[in-house]
Amino acid sequence: MRATVLATGGAGYIGSHVAAALLAAGHQVVILDDFSNSRPEVIDRINAIGPGRAVLVRGDVRDGAILDALFGAHRIDAVIHLAGLKAVGESVEKPLLYQKVNVGGAVALFEAMLRHGVMRLVFSSSATVYGMPERMPVTEDARLGTTNPYGRTKLAIEGIIDDVAVAHRDFAAISLRYFNPVGAHASGTLGEDPRGVPNNLFPYIAQTAAGVRERVRVFGDDYPTRDGTGIRDYIHVVDLAEGHVAALEHLLRGDDVEGRNRPINLGCGKGTSVLEALAAFRRAVGTDIPFQVVARRPGDVPEVVADPGLAEQLLGWRAKRGLAQMCADHWAFQRRRMRELG
Ligand code: NAD
Ligand code: UDP
Asked: What pTM, to 2 d.p., does this model score?
């Protein structure tokens, strides 16, 4: 089936890969983005990969008039909602901004969807909704609870979608709970390009390998894990993007999806420590990457690894790309960015 899909935040790190995966699967794509955390040239790069071309609507997802014009101009079958703010540290400093943009954006978008009869939604949620998980690997029925304002916006939006699906029985949604997306598109043209000092491990390692940062700070080596450093479930962003296509197609097939918002983990189900990630990246780069163990980062948990069984069972999706590929692709994109920046 060929669908027309609105991807909000489609110029961002994950959204650009989702747009490319949708085009690759033969769908039509409309991107709504205000470029508050991305660049317009990303759209050209998505379209250079093709096949077909994504249509861009530049604007804020909170703007009802823009949404009405967009839904009026394009016959949208489903929405993938990725637009939002995502920096945990910033959300602690600016909790109201996070409510306004993330929750406000979601409410404005869902209102517009209902006004225009668009009843299929895939939402970008996060493993952060599990907070400090009690059991590993984490299944979707684990107790929810988060430790920061960013995570609270994700929980709030999941709850709003639950309520919309109860009130409108023909509405169907999937909330994808991402674990740790890393890597880049095989073309080397799409990837993660954070502004300022990266918060996340992979961009920090990549910038250190490129000589932009002096050394990687390893946040604690006294966790109760195999080498003392934090363990996460890293997932290649192209696998993650393909998970969105699988979720979308599941919703469009329509078997037992209406009247519910189903949470689904997207992870590999494999834990990698900070030292293991560093070693793998070193192999991809072929040179040493300086690091130093420093104090734990406040709020970090020792281990978060997905049980991705539901995604496989329900969507027929499973991550295919391993850690070596994640590092190689992340590094290829970093090198290309460095060349572009001179
Ligand atoms: P990103 O910042 O690269 O992409 C977000 C995109 O949304 C950007 O292009 C930005 O310009 C756009 N945007 C922001 N506010 C907007 C608004 N009000 N109106 C229109 N466009 C707006 O982030 P990402 O890493 O691609 O994340 C995408 C989604 O996935 C986010 O909702 C994020 O919370 C979620 N997520 C990300 C991660 C991760 O590790 N990257 C993990 C879990 C969940
Ligand atoms: N980490 C680190 N140094 C960094 C950034 C992260 O040691 O500069 C560690 C962090 O403590 C965690 C893992 O790397 O154990 C993944 O952190 P990231 O911020 O990428 O993801 P999240 O904490 O959201 O899972």
From this structure: 0.98
